[in-house]
Design brief:
Helix content: 25-40%
Largest sheet: 7 strands, mixed
CATH architecture of the largest domain: 3-Layer(aba) Sandwich
CATH superfamily of the largest domain: Type I PLP-dependent aspartate aminotransferase-like (Major domain)
Oligomer: single chain
CATH topology of the largest domain: Aspartate Aminotransferase, domain 2
Shape: globular
Distance between the termini: 53 Å
Strand order of the largest sheet: 2-8-7-6-5-3-4
Strand content: 5-15%
């Protein structure tokens, strides 16, 4: 019998003791461990949710037509990506979509049993395979924190249900070659799922989507959690390959995956407005610059990422040693790189999600 704990502990639960330590500082904890937005969503979004009149009935699992149309218009307007609304479907935030995907793909292709994902990545890609009793196989990254497709073993490719990529990347901010990923997937008959929830926070070049490289065999996954500070609304969508979208949306009907009606109405308002996102991008960039300055004062060199709102910082003495130092010296809680895979042992991730006055506290504590 395996001695491995099941279910495994949630990674962030391991930081609870350090959070209690950091809370002792005057002004309290400065929690930069989770990518949880602290800024308000646009007022129009809240107004739309409050007046939707959609709270009594059961909304369609694929999303109401205005939501799918708004999502399609947003992609066309912001990224010059054109997807028919029939090839767009809603999900209850993207985490549940990621977590449930492997099991649904296994039913579609029972002879395969493997999920491929970046070796340093959002942990739910691997957990999706684990929850479905399948193989989770990490793909190494290159020196720029981009997925190295050349390192995929052909034997694993032959068994793969899907390949996950994430651009801009969490936690390291890498900017993958999405065209190469799409081509790899088509060449190997492996669906490619591109997690693009940070696309609006691209700092290196123009925002990019895998759908710039065609829709056959690929799915782009988007979320309002980061873009519009609407994590509590649980609204996302997936778009691309017509057969895949249809298959997944039909399966998900049976599991009752329904975005609440008021949240869908709010999402329509959010996708129809770009000004709040432009402002939010600058807020995150300003915070990261300030945090880079703070780290320099502590002898910890850090660089701005190509995208997203995380700093991926070297931890020469090990991730947990630096996590503990920051908690005890300045009351700042960050994530050890091991949360994102064993290859993250010598890094920490810092999320720029606290307001300026909280970051100012850290400077004050340094004296």
């Amino acid at each position: 019998m395996s001695t491995e704990q099941w279910p495994p502990p949630h990674p962030y639960d391991t930081l609870l003791a350090l959070k209690a330590e950091a809370e002792k500082f005057e002004g309290g904890i400065v929690d930069l461990s989770i990518g949880r937005p602290c800024d308000p969503p646009p007022a129009a979004l809240i107004e739309a949710a409050a007046t939707s009149n959609l709270e009594r009935g059961y909304p369609p699992s694929i999303g109401i037509a205005p939501l799918r149309e708004a999502a399609g218009n947003w992609m066309a307007r912001r990224f010059d990506v054109h997807v028919d609304p029939t090839n767009i479907a809603a999900c209850v935030g993207t985490k549940e979509f990621v977590a449930s995907l492997a099991g649904l793909l296994k039913l579609r292709t029972p002879e395969r049993d493997t999920v491929l994902f970046p070796a340093i990545a959002y942990p739910t890609y691997a957990m999706s395979a684990t929850l479905a009793g399948l193989r989770a196989v990490p793909v190494p990254l290159d020196e720029n924190w981009c997925i190295d497709l050349s390192q995929i073993d052909p034997a694993d490719a032959a068994r793969a249900l899907c390949l996950w990529i994430n651009t801009p990347g969490n936690p390291a901010g890498g900017m993958d070659d999405l065209g190469a990923a799409a081509e790899w997937g088509r060449s190997n008959n492996v669906p490619v799922f591109s997690d693009e929830c940070y696309i609006e926070f691209t700092f290196s070049g123009e925002p990019r989507s895998i759908l710039h490289h065609g829709q056959d065999g690929v799915i782009a996954v988007h979320s309002l959690s980061k873009r519009s500070n609407f994590a509590g609304g649980r609204v996302g969508f997936y778009a691309g390959d017509a057969e895949l979208v249809h298959y997944l949306s039909e399966c998900r009907k049976h599991t009752g995956m329904l975005v609440p009606g008021p949240a869908q109405a709010a999402a329509v308002a959010a996708f129809n407005d770009d000004e709040h996102v432009v402002a939010q991008r600058q807020i995150y960039l300003d915070r990261m610059k300030r945090l880079v300055e703070l780290l320099a004062k502590m002898g910890l060199p850090a660089e701005l990422p190509g995208g997203a709102f995380y700093l991926w910082v070297d931890a020469p003495d090990g991730a947990m040693a630096l996590v503990e130092r920051l908690a005890k010296e300045v009351g700042m809680i960050v994530s050890p790189g091991t949360f994102y895979g064993p290859d993250g042992e010598n890094h920490i991730r810092i999320a720029a999600v606290e307001p300026a006055e909280k970051i100012d506290l850290l400077f004050e504590r340094l004296g």
